[in-house]
């Protein structure tokens, strides 16, 4: 892996940490708050591609594990990685990798709606389909209750998916994916 790729991955880890500074929206009926950090997950995949996108989230999880307060609300540490948010957090590298894989496949004929579709499938549906059942398991509730509670994330997640697609289209010329396609 090139130094430039590691820098991109580290920068996106930092971006996701900065998105954690935006205060969370706690929901009374589900122990996982609404955060802006999933926007960073989608951006990492769309902009960086599969390998660097996933790596940026692996780095981010390592930062959480060593106790840095990089999650929304200043949370960090191993306790977070076994708490109700664990499934969501561990789904992020998978989501970024799959969004990146999809972005790389469609890059030559890139359109905003195609990026949006990838974000909705992998950045919204997949993250919730992994995160909600694990949250339900950890909180000792039914999987259906967890999935029903996760519906509260959909409006904000759809907005974040649109934002990530639009930003990526605007920055297409400087994306590492563009470099790979051109070079």
UniProtKB/TrEMBL annotation:
The keyword Membrane applies. It is a multi-pass membrane protein. Pfam families: BioY. InterPro entries: BioY (IPR003784). Keywords: Cell membrane, Membrane, Transmembrane, Transmembrane helix, Transport. GO terms for molecular function: biotin transmembrane transporter activity. GO terms for cellular component: plasma membrane. This is Biotin transporter. It comes from Paenibacillus albidus. The lineage of its organism: Bacteria, Bacillati, Bacillota, Bacilli, Bacillales.
